[in-house]
Design brief:
- By secondary structure, this protein is α/β, with parallel strands linked by helices.
- It has a 6-stranded mixed beta sheet with strand order 6-5-4-1-15-16.
- Helix 1 runs parallel beside helix 2.
Amino acid sequence: MRLLHTSDWHLGRAFHRVNMLGAQAEFIGHLVTTVRAHGVDAVVVSGDVYDRAVPPLAAVELFDDALHRLAALGVPTVMISGNHDSARRLGVGAGLIDRAGIHLRTEPSACGTPVVLADAHGDVAFYGLPYLEPALVKDEFGVQKAGHETVLAAAMDRVRADLATRAPGTRSVVLAHAFVTGGETSDSERDITVGGVAAVPAGVFDGVDYTALGHLHGCQTLTERVRYSGSPLPYSFSEAAHRKSVWLVDLSADGTVTAQRVDCPVPRALARIRGTLEDLLADPELERHTEAWVEATLTDPVRPADPMARLTERFPHTLSLVFDPERAPDDPDVSYARRLAGRSDQQIAEDFVAHVRGAGPDEQEQGVLRDAFDAVRADDTVREVAR
């Protein structure tokens, strides 16, 4: 069986101030063409279909168009919700849409109930594990500690229990939306840290033939059986080096996996350039970036006059301007933002405690801070979904 694995469409999202809806529509067209041209037997979409719980109407219309075009191909599609989606909204009409061969899996309680498709070699069971917010699903899975690894492990126990009841030789595919250890992050993914931990080990998914992951935006292979497709479009300049693609995965009769990448359309190249303003304007090596979306980091010791206006004369698609004068880290003029770069909310809070009272928090106090951040993040998730 040949699968097309994609994820993280983020319909409705912009790239800085650029509306990406046209590029997203081009990707949907490319997806349909790829399915037809490569004889795909099933499409799997591993979450973050939308960029937010209440997407703009234009994004909903594009998703509706995508569903109609996929259904018209007669190729089954299995799709889960991600941490950016509202699972309840995405799942509206799932029972009816199911009849058209579009299988939306957004309910955590249904993790152990697969979509079963067949080929000449027998059945393939597709298990959809939507994004599992630990604080919201721990009771469903009967776990004491609300953590990503515990809830995903419990969900996978249900998968393996169901798979054990099926005919010998039944192959299995899991769709999951999670941060798995070994994956490389980018700046455009929403933080899902719980209790100071975001990642789960790849071994959680042992026992299935292929795990189609979503959440991280770079296409990557963790093991031959566990892969991220990445987002089909860039959503931050940290993705400048990404090769955006989808996976074509062949699942043989004995469950052996082979995979190849199919590149996605590139609306415009990304470029990150750094130096003094005068150097950036004069360097002939940068001529190749004149048509790219540009992030320019200026290292001038003093902020130059009208830097954006001058940059856009040479690089008309400059979207981001960062001022980062080259100074020693302990220089008192180093910006607050630069001092905080790369530090988590937990670390910033602990530093604040140390600054105020002269000593950092002890282990118990660190736990209180973690619980507070987790509670706020879970509450934000509930509020967003309830809007």
